[in-house]
Design brief:
By secondary structure, the protein is α/β, with parallel strands linked by helices. The protein has helices spanning 22-31, 48-59, 86-91, 99-106, 125-133, 164-175, 190-201, 233-246, 261-270, 307-314, 333-340, 370-382, 393-398, 402-408, and strands spanning 3-7, 13-17, 39-42, 63-68, 71-75, 83-84, 108-112, 137-141, 144-148, 156-158, 180-184, 205-207, 214-217, 226-228, 249-253, 273-276, 281-284, 293-296, 320-325, 344-348, 351-355, 364-366, 386-390, 412-416. The structure holds uridine-diphosphate-N-acetylglucosamine (UD1).
Length: 417
C-alpha cells in the first residue's frame, strides 16, 4: 500500500497551478447521460474518482474517451444497463449522481444505496424525495434504489437541507421533466452554478443557480455540450494553507478567489497575508498565527472540505481556536492522528478546541478520508522530523499530482510502496 513520506520544516515558495474541481467534474460527467450526442469536457483532473465515474458510465454503455490534455469526450448513445452497482457506489458516494439523469433519460435506474462512510451516515433521502416529487416511483430492495417513471413532470421540491449532490441530481432530472420545477433550499455552491450553466447550454432553462431557489424549465430533448471544469476551490485553499503552515510564500494560480472568500477571510484573521486578483491568490505568512473561531456551513460559509486543513494550521497558533463542524456528523477523524503528532485538541460533540503550540513532531499516520488526508499532509509539512501517511488512495481520489506540486514548491515529500 502506498505511503507518503515527508521531512517537515521547509517553508514553501513558488507558484502552483490549481486543477479542475472534482466536485464540479463529476456532475458534468453525469449530465452527459442526458443526451445521445457526444459531450466534451476540458480541464478534467486526473483523479481516482474521475476514473471510477468513467467506469460507471462505461458500464451503462456510454463511450468515455480521454482525448489528452485534460479533455474528455462522453457519448451515451444507448444504454446497456441502468444499474450503478454496490462495488462502485461504495467506493465513491457521488456515483448516486447518475440516478436523476438515468430516470429522466431511460425511465428507470437501479442504484445501490451508498451506506455509511468515514464522515457519517450521509443518507440520500433528499435525493429520493425529490425524484419522487418529480413523479418517479421509488422502491428499495436488497440495498438498491429502483426508480421508474414514464416521463418525469416538473414539481416544487422542498428539501430538508441544501444538499449539494442532491440539488445537482434533481436539477438534471428536472431538465428532462415536463414543465417547471423549483428546488428550495437549493445548494449555492459554485459547482452547482457550473452545472446550471451546462444544463442551460443543453437547452433547459435554469434560473436562480447560486441562490437558495433554483427553477428549471424542462425540455423533452437536450443538446450536447462543451464545457470547462471550474478550478478546484478546495485544492486552492489547501495550497494556501500549505504556504501558511510552513511560513512560506506561494502564488496559487488558475483559481477563482471569489469562490474562496470565507477561507481567505479566516486566513487573514489568523494573520496570513492573502492578496488576490482574478485568478491568483498570493499567500504569505511571516509572523505568529492567531487563534480563530470557525464554523463550517454550506456555501458561501466556511467549507467543511477545508476543516481538517484549517485545524492542522490552528495546531500551531498562539492560543485556543474553536472549530465547529455543522455539515457532517462525524468529521473529526483526523483529530486522533494530529494528536499523535503532539497536537492538543479536545473534542466535544461537533466542537473541537485546538490548543495551539510551538511545534508538531513527525509521526506515522493513517489517512481516513479525502480531506482528512490533506490535513495530515499539511501538518507533516510543518512538523519536525519525518511523517509517514498511509492509505494514500484517499488523497488520490481528489488531489491531482499533489506531491509533485508540493515538491515544485520546495517540499521534501515523496511516495513509497
Ligand atoms: C458534497 C461534496 C463533498 C462536500 C459536501 C458538503 C461532491 C461530490 N461532494 O457532498 O465534498 O463535503 O458536498 O459541502 O460534491 N444529507 C441528508 N440527506 C440527503 C443528502 C444529504 O441528510 O439526502 C445530509 C448529509 O448527511 C450532510 C448534509 O446533508 O450532513 C450535506 O451533505 P451534502 O451537501 O449532500 O453532501 P454531498 O453532496 O454528499
Amino acid at each position: 500500500m502506498q505511503q507518503i513520506v515527508m521531512q517537515g520544516g521547509t517553508a514553501l515558495h513558488g507558484r502552483v497551478e490549481v486543477s479542475g474541481a472534482k466536485n464540479a467534474a463529476l456532475p458534468l460527467m453525469a449530465a452527459a447521460l442526458l443526451t445521445e450526442s457526444p459531450c466534451d469536457i476540458t480541464n478534467m483532473p486526473d483523479l481516482g474518482d474521475i476514473r471510477t465515474f468513467s467506469m460507471l458510465l462505461r458500464q451503462f454503455g456510454a463511450h468515455v474517451e480521454a482525448l489528452g490534455s485534460g479533455k474528455m469526450r462522453i457519448q451515451a448513445r444507448s444504454f446497456a444497463s441502468v444499474e450503478a452497482p454496490y462495488d462502485l457506489v461504495k467506493t465513491m458516494r457521488a456515483s448516486v449522481l447518475v440516478l436523476g439523469p438515468l430516470v429522466a433519460r431511460c425511465g428507470q435506474a437501479r442504484v445501490s444505496l451508498p451506506g455509511g462512510c468515514a464522515i457519517g451516515a450521509r443518507p440520500i433521502d433528499q435525493h429520493l424525495e425529490g425524484i419522487r416529487a418529480l413523479g418517479a416511483d421509488i422502491t428499495l430492495d436488497h440495498g438498491y434504489v429502483y426508480a421508474r417513471a414514464q416521463r418525469l413532470r416538473g414539481a416544487d421540491i422542498h428539501l430538508r437541507m441544501p444538499t449539494v449532490t442532491g440539488t445537482e441530481n434533481l436539477m438534471m432530472a428536472a431538465a428532462l421533466a415536463a414543465g417547471r420545477s423549483r428546488i428550495h433550499p437549493a445548494a449555492r455552491e459554485p459547482e452547482v452554478v457550473c452545472l446550471a450553466e451546462v444544463l442551460t447550454c443543453m437547452g433547459a432553462r435554469v434560473t436562480g443557480a447560486g441562490t437558495d431557489t433554483i427553477e428549471i424549465e424542462g425540455v423533452s430533448c437536450l443538446q450536447p455540450f462543451q464545457c470547462t471544469v471550474i478550478p478546484d476551490r478546495i485544492e486552492a485553499g489547501t495550497f494556501a494553507i500549505a504556504a501558511a503552515i510552513t511560513g512560506g510564500k506561494v502564488e496559487v494560480a488558475h483559481c477563482r478567489p471569489g469562490h474562496l472568500e470565507a477561507v481567505i477571510q479566516q486566513l487573514r484573521a489568523v494573520g496570513v497575508r492573502v492578496e488576490a486578483d482574478d485568478s491568483t491568490l498570493y499567500v504569505e505568512r511571516r509572523g505568529l498565527l492567531r487563534p480563530v473561531n470557525i464554523t463550517t456551513t454550506p456555501y458561501p460559509g466556511f467549507p467543511t472540505d477545508m476543516q481538517a486543513q484549517m485545524m492542522a494550521l490552528m495546531t500551531l497558533a498562539r492560543g485556543t481556536s474553536i472549530i465547529r463542524e455543522t455539515v457532517f456528523e462525524n468529521r473529526f477523524m483526523h483529530v486522533a492522528e494530529l494528536r499523535r503528532m503532539g497536537a492538543q485538541i479536545d473534542v466535544r460533540g461537533n466542537t473541537a478546541r485546538v490548543h495551539g503550540q510551538d511545534a508538531l513532531t513527525g509521526a506515522q499516520l493513517m489517512a481516513t478520508d479525502l480531506r482528512a488526508s490533506a490535513g495530515l499532509i499539511l501538518a507533516g509539512l510543518a512538523a519536525q522530523g519525518e511523517t509517514v501517511v498511509s492509505r494514500m488512495y484517499h488523497l488520490d481520489r481528489g488531489y491531482e499530482h499533489i506531491e509533485k506540486k508540493l515538491v515544485a514548491l520546495g517540499a521534501k515529500i515523496w511516495r513509497q510502496g
